[in-house]
Every structure is written in C-alpha cells, then in structure tokens.
Design goal:
Blueprint: E1 17-24, H1 30-36, E2 39-54, E3 57-72, E4 84-89, E5 91-93, E6 96-98, E7 111-116, E8 134-139, E9 145-149, E10 153-158, E11 163-173, E12 176-179, E13 193-194, E14 200-203, H2 215-227, H3 232-238, E15 280-284, H4 290-303, E16 309-313, E17 324-326, H5 332-338, E18 350-357, E19 363-370, E20 375-377, H6 380-383, E21 388-390, H7 391-402, E22 408-410, E23 417-419, H8 449-458, E24 469-472, E25 474-476, E26 480-482, E27 484-485, E28 489-491, E29 495-505, E30 511-521, E31 531-541, E32 545-554, E33 562-571, E34 587-589, E35 594-597, E36 612-613, E37 621-626, E38 646-655, E39 660-665, E40 685-690, E41 701-704, H9 706-709, E42 712-716, E43 721-729, E44 735-744, E45 756-758, E46 762-767, E47 789-796, E48 801-806, E49 815-821, E50 825-830, E51 846-851, E52 856-863, E53 871-879, E54 891-893, E55 897-901, E56 918-927, E57 932-937, E58 945-946, E59 950-955, E60 963-968, E61 977-982, E62 987-995, E63 1006-1015, E64 1026-1027, H10 1029-1037, H11 1056-1064, E65 1067-1068
Parallel strand pairs: 15-16, 15-17, 17-19, 20-21, 28-35, 36-38, 45-47, 54-56
Antiparallel strand pairs: 1-18, 2-3, 2-7, 3-4, 5-6, 7-8, 8-9, 10-11, 11-12, 13-31, 14-32, 18-19, 22-23, 24-29, 25-26, 27-29, 29-32, 30-31, 30-33, 33-34, 33-35, 37-44, 38-43, 39-42, 39-44, 40-41, 40-43, 46-53, 47-52, 48-51, 48-53, 49-50, 49-52, 55-63, 56-62, 57-61, 57-63, 58-63, 59-60, 59-62, ...
Helix pairs in contact: 1-2, 4-7, 10-11
Length: about 1050
Amino acid sequence: MKKTLLTVFTNLIVCVVAQHSQAHSPDMRLNEVVHMSDAIFIGRVSEIRTFDGGGGMVGTEVVFTEIDALSTRPSARAFISEEVSLRFAGGSYGGVNISACCQPFFDVGEDYLVCTLLDGNTYLSPFSGGTQGLFRILQDDRGEMYPVTYRGRGIQKMSAFDFAPTPTVNQVWQGRPIYWETPEFASSVEPPRAMTEGATSNTRRIETSESILSLEDFVTNLELARQTSIPSYITQKCGSKQALSKMQPPKPRSPLDAIKRMYDPSRGVICWCGYQSTNVIMQQVPEDWTSFDHNNWSMANYNIIVDLFRYIDSDGSWANNGDDEFCGWPTDAAILNQYSGFDGWGSAVAMCWTSSAGFCGQIVEADIMFNRTDSWGYDLDDTFGTNTFLYRPVAAHELGHTVGLERGYTDDETGDDVGCGDESYQYDQPTTMTAAYRDIVENGKGLHALDAAGVRGIYDSDVLFLEDVGVESYYGDAGMENATTNSTWLNDLDTLELYNVTVENVSSNSQSDIRLRIYLSTNNTISENDKKISTFSFSSMSEDSFWTGDLSMTIPQTISTGDYYVGLIATLDGDDYWWDDYSGNNATWMPEKIHVENDGVWEFNDVIINAQLLPHHWLNTNWWVDNSGADDDEGNGGGGICGGPYNRDLWWFFDAEFDGEVAVGIPDSLPAGDGQGLQAKSIDFVEIYFGYPDSGSQPIASSCATAFEGPAVADVNKGQRYYIRIGGVDHSRITGWAHLDVIPAGVVGDTPDIAIPVDEGVTFAKYPPNSTSFFGDGGPCVGGNDDLIDRWFVYTAKYGGTVEATTCGSGDIDTIIGVFKPGLVPVTCNDNSVEPCISGDTKASTVYWDTNPGMTYLIQVLASPLDQPEFDLTVSLQTAGQPNNSCDSPMSIGAPTIPFTTRGASTSGTYDCSGNPIGCDVWFKWVATDTGTASIGTCEDIGGAANFDSIVNVYDGCTMEYLIACNESACSDGSSIATLPVVAGNSYLIQVGSSASELGGCVAGDGVLGITIETSCLGDIDGDGSVGIDDILTLISDWGTSASRSDLDESGTVDVGDLLILIDMFGDCP
C-alpha cells in the first residue's frame, strides 16, 4: 500500500494533472557562481505572478524593485533599471501545476541578493547554481543588514571560493544571530568504541557563531571572488563572456517589515510528494549506449529498498507520451519542442519531468534527460576533481524524483509551498538528492540512509528486508563537505586524525556491532588486503540512522615510506565483518592522499635492551600489549617461576616518582582490541624487576595466570627504576590491554611531593582537605594557625601570562590559597577574594600571579576542619601581550624545546620564503651551542609542535636583508622547520608566525619551538670540515669546564677523554 499526503483529496470530483520538472544543479564554488552570473544585484520583491508558457508549460515571473546593482556585464545592463523582472519555469496557473528543480519561493516585501543569468533568454532557472546564487537579506533591530543563504543559514567566515554556514538563523538582534533550536551533536548515534591501542572517536558537534558576516563584508568577498581567474568549468559551460564590473559596496536600504516566514531547519531532510505504482517500467536508451548499464545499476539502488523498477526498450517516442523513460541527451531544440517556455538549461546538468494525478497523487509519467553540453564520465577515477560529472549519482538522483522524492511547487492561489517546495540541496547528512558534486568520493552505488527513509516512507507496505551499512568520506552541513585529515605528511608513530567521516545504517532494521576499519593503501581500491591501522565498533545503530564524527589513530611503525590512500570499510556479520547484503557502499577513501615517512628504525621491545618507557603518574595507566611479533626465545634475561618455557616476552620500564606500591595486571573493563581484550583473558606471566635484570636476576614480584592470581604487586622507592616483563608460556599469544597502578605510600594531595596535577580551566570538584596541615602551623599564608587542614596541587604553565586560582563555587566554605615555587618558596596568598564570586560565595579565595612558560607552582588550599569542608578549585591562564612581539625585544632562549604562544602578537611587516606577509609573529634570540647544521622549527621530529600553520624565519639582524634561513610548513600540517649552518657562540634571531590572510588578518596559536644541531663530525668544533689545530686550541681553552662544544664524550667536563677523541679524529671529516 502506498502512503498519500494529507493534501491529497481521497474523493476527487475534478482530476487535476500536476506536471513537475526537477532539474539537477551542480555544486558550485562561490567564484564559479559569481563568474557564471551576468548580473549581481540586491532587490526587494514587489510582485510574483505566474503565466501560461505555452505547450502545457507554466512560468513564474518575479519583479524586484529598489534595485542596487552590485556588478553587471555590459550585455545585462539593458535589462536592469528601476526594476528587474526574472522569469523561470514552474508554478501554478489555470489548474496546471509545474515544479522545477531549484525553483525558489520568494516573499513579497523581502530583500534578496541575486546572482543571475540576464541576457534576454528564459531559463529553466536563471539563478547561477540554482538557489546557490540566492541570498536573503535580513535586517536587525538597528537596520543593519546581514545575508543568509536561501534556506536561512548565516555566514560565519568566507573566502573568495567558499563560506562556512551557521545553523538556520531565525532573526538577528543587535548584530547577533538568533538560531532555531539546534542540537549539540550532528547525530544521536553513540560514537564507536576504539578497538585499537591509542585510537579515539568523537561525534561531530554543531557549532554556532556569536556573529555572522554583515552585508558589506559579504560583498567585499564577492569582489574577491570576481577578481579570481575565470574557473575552467565556467569557461567550458558558458564560453567567453564580457567582464563583470567591479563589485560596488551595498547602498543603504529602506526598513523591512517583520519577517513573514523563515525556513524551518527540519527542511534539511528528504521530503516526498507523489508515488508510483510498485512496478515503474522505464523505457531505456539503446542497449549499446554506455549509459544503458548505468541506468540499470541506478535503478537497482532502489530495488534493494523496495522492488520498484523494471525496464523495456524505447518505443521511439519520448516525453508527454504517458511513459516513464530515460531520454538520453536531447538537444535544446528538441526539449523546447516538447516543453515550451524556456530557452536553455541554465546551470542544470539533468532534469526529470513528472506528471501526477492531483498535487501529490500517483505519478503517471516521468522523463529523465541529461545536459549534452556538460562533460560526462562513468568511472570515478576519471571524474573526481575534474569538470566532468559522474553519470551514476546523477541518474540515481533523477530516479528519486520519479518515485516521489523532492517534488513540489507554489500554489498560485494561496502562495503556499505544495508538497516538498523548492529543492535547495542544503542537507545535513549524505543523500542521493543533493547537488551534482565533482570533488567528493561518491560513486553512486547504493542509496543513503536519508534516501532509504524517504522511499520506505512512501512505499511502507512494500519494504524489503535489507541489512546494509555504508561509509562516506564526506558529511552534510547545508550541503556535502569533504572529510579531512589532520595532515598529509606524517611519520610512523604520528597520530592520524580523520575529521567528519560518516557511517550509515541503510538497513530495514537496527544493527549492532558494526565494524569500521581504517586502512592505508597504495591505490584507491580499498580491501582487506591493504594495511589495516585501526578498528572501531558501533554498539548499535537504528534503521535509517547515521553517525558523523572524528577518528584518531596511530601510524604503525610497520608502515613503509610512501604515499597512501586512507581507506575505510564498514561492514556487518558477527566475527567475520567482510560483507553485508549490498557491497557497493562498504568501502571508500579519503579525498586527499597522505605521505608516511619511516626512518626504518624500529626497536621492538622483545629484548631488555629495547625496553620501552612506560609513562605513569599516581593515576592508573593502561597500555596495549601484543606479543605476536616477539622473538620466540627463552633467554632475554631473568629467571622465571611460572613454569615454562617462557616465550614471546616483552619488556617495559618506569621510574618511580615516589615511595609506594606498584600493581601490574589486567584491567577490570576496557574496550577490546580487534575482538580480543585482556580483560576477558589471562596474561600467562607478569614479572617486576628492581633495576636492570641480568641472567641471574629474580623478580621482586610476579603473577602467573593473572585472571586467577590477580596482578603482580611490589613496593617501589622514589627515584628507582623498575622493569616489567609480560609474555606467554608455551608460545602463547597475548593481545589486549594491560594495567599498571602506582599508588603513593601517602594520601595523594597530602604533601607537596605527591600533589594533585591540575591544568588550565579544569575544576576539581569537591576535594576534601587532609586531616592535618603539611606545615603543622598552616604555613606562611596563615601565620601560625595550627587548626587548619590542607590539600596540595601542582600546576605547570604552558604559556606566559597571569594565572588565576580560585575556590569560587565551593559554597559557604572559608578557604585560604597559597602559591609556592619548587622548594616551597612563597609566591602569593589570599584569604578572601577581592572581587565577589559570580556564584555568590563570600568566603572563597582567589589568587593571581604572573608566570613564564614552563614554570611549575605548588598550590596549597587550606580550610577549617570545623566546616567539614569540600571545595572546588579552578585554575585559568590569561595569556599576556607578547613581550617578544618584535625583533627589537626577542626572548633569549637556550633549551632545546621552548613552549610559546603567538596569541596577542602583532605583525612585524616581514615575509616568508615565497614573499607572502607573515602575521602574528614572536621573536627569540638563540646562541648556538655547537657548530654544525641547525634545525629550528615546530616540527615534531626535533621536539617541536604547533596547532596552527606556522612559519619559521632565521635572521642575522632585524630586517629582511639579514634573512639567512626560512621555511613554511615543511614537516607536516601546521609545522615548519628551517635548516642553516651555525657556529658555536654566534647568536641568531628566530621569528615564528603564520601566513597573513587575504583580508590582512593572521592566525595565532600555541606550540613548541624545537632546536637541534648536527655537527659536521665529532671533534670538528669550528665546523670547517676537518679536525685540526684550531679545534685543539678551542678544546684547551675550554679545559676543565662543561662547555658542550668541547665535551665530546658528554661526560660533563672537558678533559683528557675529549682530547684523546679529538686526536683520534684528527684530519678531514669523513
């Protein structure tokens, strides 16, 4: 049984035939929309009227007044005066109702910015890119003007090529957008759990902006788009055109009346209007046409949801003949002969004409045709990133119209949207019914969850059972946007992040334990034969649902240097996870390839000498164990008490930070890894050794079959090193999570040496103080009050600035805060906050102190035991204006890694390697400690880091003529490295900044500046390429000191050992 809309009368006295045309517009970049246009103007809609276009066609005419012509071609100026009239196909007239794709619905009395074709012809749609070339103008309560997209999305940032939309704006007040109620996350599906060590996942958040672009700023960016080179796609589609005039600033406009209607954001889901019988018989193109098979495959997309389509040979006629058919690529003249009323396609690449009984009744004819002037291809490898359209997704889109998806028009009597209204393509999840894209990885194989929900909604009693999941490397945000990676250049063991990947459940029922696997492949045919680097699992997804979010994982050391596609496979089926009912949508690849660099040094910790450091704190630590690659030997040092033989063992070590107890075993509960987890298994043996174990060493603690015996437990002493050995007995494989607890002997926070670590902006809720005060008399902040109790915290500043620590929010608890440097040197104290707490607390404490990057402080919070206190502590950092803001005031540095921030930094008027301006820059002065080749920058390889696109310049003086080295983004995304020869004792000026934007701004951020020096050869102190008399004289002058340039054996002192090395190396460097 087919559903019918409520607007369809069940007892019809008069049968009205409604004819619809749905054309398919391409996704266009902003500069393509601008360069396609003959005119760009702002106008107020004064009248909307429909007319008989002849031949059964209906047209709509919209009249704009109060014209503000922003940019025009000479050929369009004859059509612009005090008013502009635009005609396009579609509308309701004399009982005939016709809908055309992207036919916009205007409101009389409202202002619009219009990008249009205006050359005397009447188009299916004259708007450049369909509704992509229309923007509604809102006025706030002050009369300030703000453009929003045709469907009401604000614009939060913009370039000449694109803009970032906000959620749907309801109105603007005092310059601030007021949004429709917006969910916090893009999907209600829980993010997948990571099944690989170190991997994480997060659901995409829907971000709102506190401001949107004004009309003036928007037009400024339109001018930047006009100044770009004419895109090749526009030249291919439109040929040569006269130049657009320079964009004029918008003029003031008269006030608008109250908004008559704004668009509900729920319109971003698939709508249906009309239905077919359950056997849609499409007349096909000739069988020897390449498109013949692709038409059949596109129909199969729908047949796995509901068995709808069949095909027969064409009977030789086409259009207006009562048949459903693929019409191929007819000429404009042939189309005009069948459908009067328009002279050209406009920006459309395909269209579907449909006729139905009544407004949204049974569809009695559907005709699909394609624009012969566009370039078409049948293989994604041939079309991706080009001006050629892939045929199959477009065919699937048009078939959606034939079965009732996205059909509608405006009623000429009421002015109301009928059925689905206009087709704007501003969807927030993947769908076949979106625009025709040229730059997303979409092969047209299979429908999306949103489409399946629409089809099942129409044909609810004919739904087929289907188990099908899919994955896409793009997502919906008022249209489709590509997923991205954190970097296109990575080293082994680097973190790879995938942003905004989409997984869908297209099944007819809910599914559990959906596997998503990530691969690296040398080609874009992704399969299980590629190199898997991570696995995720969704616990459940309901039918027709989707998830969009971010994935994070580590590049394994086993990946060789090379260029790779990042592939994704999503599947069902229990422990197999290799198939579901439809395989065409199970695999995809990220749009950009990545490069992996591997230095080939991989020291596996299956021998003691390669034991890996296990970072830890008093908090517990979990880490991944996989001994499948370990050598199957029985040596490796140390004895054994768990029986034998010991095989496949791995080694770790840690340095105890305080006296206490260590326990090593398996966690109580953690995500499994690749289907196996140690929480469900047993480690054959765990051993803990004090110091470096040799062949005769015995463990100080051990556990055999840890699932039964529990963890290995041992006492540890502060400053001592301990080794951990984990492995299997009788060649057993151990794969999964291990767990380590290091528990201080005292209460955590009881004393400064086991203080609780805190970070900026984190509230440590309800920490009760200890039973006594560390100082006994309360300490220097309270002057001998021995009735108070305290708790200790430790804070390390990442950046320079002013730190605030406060107990505001603790309620009516009287607290005192003291701050100390290491060694318990007092910094500041406070009893009661000078400024009242927002929370209304009257007895809270707040302290402020200035800090430099990397400084560590101890924070003592005291309270009276009579209050039975539990308090909150919040620490925050306000970064200072940068003191090293110019070359004249550089910060002197010496450490090999220096944390920095460019927040608040200004621009020095310098340039990068390519001559582009640098902005938001800070300066450092560095004295070389050795002679050789220095590497300076934010590259991870040298200990650096950056969360922005950094630039590094090195100078001998304070002007560009003294520039001696520079490099921009040479390491990985957002990191840079400059290399140059340096001489020990010479000073160098280092500048770190970012590229200035097109509008003159710059991006600030945080990072770490790393510096390394590779000397020419051991003993070549002066860097002249040889070890000679000058080097000996330099060493003698440094005799008895700790000068690093002459301390060749790194003993800490320049002595006879260094002289012997220098003599041994005497001569030319190798």
